[in-house]
Amino acid sequence: MKEWWVQVGLLGVPLLAVYLHIPPPQLSPALRSWKSSGSFFTYKDLNIFYRDSSGAVGSSDVVVLLHGFPTSSYDWSKIWEGLTQRFHRVIALDFLGFGFSDKPRPHGYSIFEQATIVEGLLRHLGLRHQRINLLSHDYGDTVAQELLH
């Protein structure tokens, strides 16, 4: 009788090969629309997805939305229109490793890096010296605390 690890290997290798060749699922129409209305900016050769909408006329307020774990900027889709009625600009991004942003492996993901990416997006959009409102939840709360620090 063969060793147990040989039997596991003989079964595991073909299963892994099949798994690696399964195509990803198709995006829903809502997700396709969300992605098509966004853009990407580059942070250290990595593509970061974001949405930036102009909204309320007469307001100069900008709000940046920071999503939770393990989700994406799509968390904000159901209240996006309402936010654009209150704020001049509504901005949301997918943190590195989430949503439509790149997911490098191996990579040492950190809250500090995510905060730096948010700062990079604000520079990219010309908002570095603008007063910014933050709206966050879950994982985004920790990133927001680092930004406030």
From TrEMBL:
Residues 62-140 form the AB hydrolase-1 domain. One of its GO terms (cellular component) is membrane. One of its GO terms (molecular function) is monoacylglycerol lipase activity. InterPro entries: AB_hydrolase_1 (IPR000073), AB_hydrolase_fold (IPR029058), AB_hydrolase_sf (IPR050266), Epox_hydrolase-like (IPR000639). Residues 1-20 form the signal peptide. Keywords: Signal. One of its GO terms (biological process) is acylglycerol catabolic process. Pfam families: Abhydrolase_1. Belongs to the AB hydrolase superfamily. This is MEST protein. The gene is Mest.
